[in-house]
Design brief:
The chain has 155 residues and is α+β, with helices and mostly antiparallel strands. It is built from five helices and five strands. The protein has a single domain, classed as Roll (CBS-domain), CATH 3.10.580.10. The longest helix is centred in the middle third of the chain and has 25 residues.
Length: 155
């Protein structure tokens, strides 16, 4: 079976100058977990929910110390929790403003419309990726996700 028979032709793309917040909104709005990142017509990377979450986890995580409070500190605990929540919201907001180029995968594995689906499945499993852009004459014409391949098996 050929890629052109299973690919999704209407590709949702993210501009390379988009923020993480904009990319996340686009993914959620379209109910997808990842998309190609484009600079004009050229695919320059891939962005996924996992990339966005990994970025937040790696750079913005909180570390909590284990401690037993004294009776006086028990009064301070609610205040500390409020401050922590505010700081957490602030970090979430800052993360959302970051440019996606800092977290996207810039190594793009692409296929052509005449390639065999088994080749795409092999690329996905070997490279541990969930979607592959379909390129024809330097033009993005579709995308193949794992779901597309699985759906083709049950038709």
């Amino acid at each position: 079976m050929k890629v052109k028979n299973v690919m999704t032709e209407e590709v949702i793309t993210v501009d390379n100058d988009a923020s993480l917040r904009e990319a996340a909104k686009l993914l959620r709005k379209n109910e997808i977990s990842g998309a190609p990142v484009v600079d004009g017509e050229e695919v320059v990377g891939m962005i996924s929910e996992e990339d966005i979450l990994r970025s937040f986890k790696e750079e913005k995580s909180f570390e909590h110390d284990l401690w037993l409070p004294s009776p006086f500190e028990l009064v301070e605990i609610p205040i500390r929790e409020i401050l922590e929540i505010r700081e957490y919201k602030k970090l979430l907001n800052q993360t959302g403003k970051e440019d996606i180029s800092s977290v996207m995968s810039d190594k793009v594995f692409s296929v052509g419309p005449e390639d065999d689906v088994s080749e795409v499945a092999e690329i996905m499993t070997n490279k541990k990726i969930n979607r592959v852009p379909v390129i024809n004459d330097s033009e993005l014409i579709g995308i193949v996700a794992r779901e597309d391949i699985i759906n083709s098996l049950v038709k």
